[in-house]
Amino acid sequence: MTASLPAQSQHGRLADVAVVGLGYVGLPTALSLFAAGRTVVGVDTSESRLADIRSVRVDLLPAQQDRLAQALLDPGFRVTSDPAAALEADAVIICVPTPVDGGLLPDLRALKAACASAVAHAVPGQLLVLTSTSYVGTTRELLVEPLVARGLRPGTDVFVAFAPERIDPGNPSHSPDRTPRVIGGVTGRCTELAASLLAGTAPSVHRVDSPEAAEMSKLWENTFRAVNIALANELAENCLELGLEPLHVIEAAATKPYGFMPFYPGPGVGGHCIPCDPHYLLWQLRAREVASPLVEVAMTAIAERPARVAGKVRDALTARGLATAGARVLILGIAYKPGVADLRESPALEIMDRLAAWGATVGYSDPLVPRLDRHGVVRHSVAAPCPADWDLVLVHTLHPGAEVVWPADSPVVLDVTRRPAGVAAGAAV
């Protein structure tokens, strides 16, 4: 390797990469690095996660499943729970979750632990790259300053950069090797080393002049999406109030070739990014007594969306002369988005909880989530729902290839996503 990581590590091995955290970001990252010719060791503290990886029981695209199965047969790719494995690596990439707690405040436990471990095991000449989305200044606070306290000068003794993850689970069009990377190093040399490391995993690398600029770029990306999703939900309800079909209006607006990007109404926002990332920015701004009213309102609307949808289910039942207590409600798809089995922050879970609390019998049908244990109540996916068994069907998430066709005597169908083919009854919300 030239102008990048040393061709040989101090351990006499070819340049290795340790990926810390093998979740929805870390595992695809490790596979991309391995496919780019790197020797990779993946580190995760969860033995159950490692067992799932070793048996290829993980939520990846089919092509990535095959890539993982092949990688596990190669001695150049291995996984471990031992954080000391980072000592073997010329580069360490930190890919741990950054969720929010019940109060929508940043939960920094995993991030702080992973950074502390990386600092403790850092060796001279090593490159540390943080990818986890967080507040502006995280890289300096959790990596640079502790390294300096250890006597390791970033940019001279060790190299530090931030390169925000850009993973879109379940979407083959946005795989890592098709998505540009943003990189901001502590020094120019740090940026170039990180760019050299990640260049083989992305179509292009965009360099910024600091870790803080890279950190803010990720917060900007996802805050932009959050605000527009909240707006789409609001405008969709405005359309219905005016007797208009929201999707027809969106399609018309999207014919404009400039200044417009279509966002679609839905049951709420789930997953690892949109419901969480903007709160890292808001939390930091509040500490500085700086207001961001537009973002605040958007995130409040997003948080309240599942409750509004549950209320619309109750209204639809009332319109049929049915009480919510005792009603039978089926939710089609409970994953947070099509094509994944991920339930993190899925609006379906809150909707289900609220309806159950109001006395409804709630079932679900999701081929990717065969079993759900929620608050001690175990439910199993209904494989072939019979319309006669349900008073209302809530269309929440339709996975690729799913066909939903209801007969004329179907129950009320409440569609809170893009209207699928075959659903002829009901209303969008």
Q: CATH topology of the largest domain, anyone?
A: Rossmann fold
Distance between the first and last residues' Cα: 55 Å
Average predicted local confidence, pLDDT? 90
Shape: globular
* CATH level-1 class of the largest domain: Alpha Beta
Tally of individual helices: 11
CATH 2nd-level architecture of the largest domain = 3-Layer(aba) Sandwich
- Please state the CA-atom Rg, rounded to the nearest Å: 23 Å
- Give the strand order, joined by hyphens, for the main sheet: 3-2-1-4-5-6-7-8
The figure for the number of domains is 2
Summing up helix and strand content along with how strands pair, one would put the structural category as alpha/beta
Report the portion of residues in β strands. Answer: 5-15%
Largest sheet composition = 8 strands, mixed
* Sequence stretches where pLDDT stays below 50 over 5 or more residues: 6-15, 420-429
**Succession of helices and strands:** EHEHHEEHEHEEHEHHHHEHEEEEEE
Q: How many E strands?
A: 15
CATH 4th-level superfamily of the largest domain: NAD(P)-binding Rossmann-like Domain
